[in-house]
Write a structure and sequence with these properties.
Order of helices and strands: HHEEEHEEHEEHH
Strand content: 5-15%
CATH topology of one domain: Collagenase (Catalytic Domain)
CATH architecture of one domain: 3-Layer(aba) Sandwich
Keywords: Signal
Helix content: 25-40%
Organism: Streptomyces thinghirensis
Protein name: DUF3152 domain-containing protein
CATH class of one domain: Alpha Beta
Shape: globular
Radius of gyration: 18 Å
């Protein structure tokens, strides 16, 4: 049964690729690959184990792949369970975070973005926007390139939108582009970064690190695509995985990392993936 399900996921992903390329030109090959990899990882996580056990329920912050090798000496202690409720679905309407016009970074290319949170969930739009803004302003983030800066806006034109939504609403938004996210994964379509509330609260079973780092990786990876960066791979054993690496596929000997730059301003890149 797991094999049949996995085959169905691959078939759905392939159909999504064809659909997007024919009818949704804003969706890039990188975005298609990101979502296909996430679906593959979700399928591996949900599959029965070798002893014939049943699939587990919602991933927990402490979950990790059973065969994952890490160069770290030991994992960090698991965080306390979150008290934020994760409803299966919501109304599909959003509240836009207020913005004061503050720009982070000194680059001449100002990227305008919005943060939207679905109505009825236990996350304040202002809090989500503040966390995302902190990621973009961090000296390990994209503003270090000296070319880009970011401005949170609540109206008018924008370059991209970060939407935090319930699993059911994510399925609806992503499904409109031919993608089956099955209530489990994030997706990026057009100018939208659609973040599954389950992932925002619980993190990913494929990412061994604090929840704040996982959220930073979501932001940095997707924003990286929007400012022109493609996928990269591990530059060598024991080195930080690039933020533009598809870390959900495995670290290939690198160490999990959410940031494009280190604290000294050095780019944490790797070989390009065509």
């Amino acid at each position: 049964m797991a094999g049949l399900t996995f085959g169905a996921v691959l078939l759905a992903a392939g159909a999504a690729v064809a659909y997007w390329r024919e009818t949704r030109p804003p969706v890039t090959d990188d975005q298609v690959a990101d979502v296909a990899d996430a679906l593959d990882a979700a399928e591996r996580t949900a599959a029965p184990d070798a002893t014939g056990g049943t699939p587990s329920g919602s991933p927990s912050p402490s979950a990790s792949p059973s065969a994952k090798a890490s160069p770290s000496p030991s994992p960090s202690p698991s965080p306390s369970p979150s008290t934020i409720a994760i409803p299966a679905t919501g109304p599909g309407t959003f509240v836009t975070a207020e913005a004061d016009g503050t720009t982070v970074g000194t680059g001449s290319r100002v990227r305008r973005y919005k943060v939207l949170v679905e109505e009825g969930i236990d996350i304040r739009p202002s809090a989500a926007a503040a966390e995302i803004s902190d990621v973009l302003a961090d000296r390990r983030g994209w503003t270090t390139d000296g070319a880009n800066s970011f401005r949170l806006v609540s109206s008018g034109s924008y370059d991209f939108v970060v939407k935090i939504a319930t699993p059911g609403t994510v399925d609806e938004i992503c499904g409109a582009y031919g993608l089956r996210t099955r209530g489990e994964v994030n997706c990026a379509v057009g100018t939208d970064v659609v973040v599954n509330l389950k992932r925002w609260v619980l993190g990913s079973p494929e990412f061994d690190g604090p929840i704040g780092d996982y959220r930073a990786l979501i932001v940095n990876h997707e924003v990286g695509h929007r400012i022109g960066h493609g996928h990269e791979t591990c530059p060598g054993p024991g080195l930080p995985a690039p933020a533009m690496m598809q870390q959900i596929k495995g670290l290939k000997g690198c160490v999990a990392n959410a940031w494009p730059y280190d604290r000294a301003g050095e780019y944490l890149g790797g070989p390009s993936v065509s």
